[in-house]
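Task: sequence in, structure out. Protein: Metallo-beta-lactamase domain-containing protein.
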Amino acid sequence: MMFPVQTVPILGAYKVMDKVYQIRGFDLAVTTIIKAPEGLVVFDPLGTKVSAKEAFDFYLKEVGPNTGANLTLAAVVCTHSQDEITWSKGNIQVVAPLNFAEEALSENYMVIGNMGRRAWWQFGNLLPANENARIQAGLSFTQSNSLVTYAEDTLEITMDIY
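Result:
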């Protein structure tokens, strides 16, 4: 039981390779930011608008100024139906697999009640957190409990690319 708790990443921006960073500790998921000529591309956005914004702002503050890169958010790529898209459309391209909107919405519509109840037990959402105690969620110390939003994809991948 202690091993996962001891190996949970400390909140931060971790360089994976040149131009690729993972942002960890802001939500139950990990988000990846890639520097492209057109701007920044976010892979697997976090679960809520608040955690996604905090993670992106953290990247801009801690990593962005040191790169000399274009720090404009150009695209968000969702790789699986559990990604809750938390970005407004505007000039941001939202890229997703074929039938993403249908799958994401139907999955969340059909099982959201059960997933929520399970999360209360699985992640200890209803337990008080303080400096002496916190339930650990495995990938992070907790999941975000703020508003989940949705923006439909603007570019759907319709063919195999491998």
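The domain at 2-154 is CATH 3.60.15.30 (Metallo-beta-lactamase; Chain A).
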